[in-house]
Amino acid sequence: MAQQFKEAFDRLFKNKFVDKKSGRVIxxxxxxxxxxxxxxxxxxxxxxxRPKRKK
Length: 55
Prior knowledge:
Layout: H1 6-13, E1 16-19, E2 25-27, H2 30-35, E3 49-51
């Protein structure tokens, strides 16, 4: 298994969320996302967000 660097991991996954309806990636504070204050972008904006998947 390849060695993971903390800087690279943070850049790719930290504070990034995906809108479940549109699939757009949004960078936001996790506490605000959990409180429902962050919405997606665009015409089909929702506040249903999930963390970015770690492959």
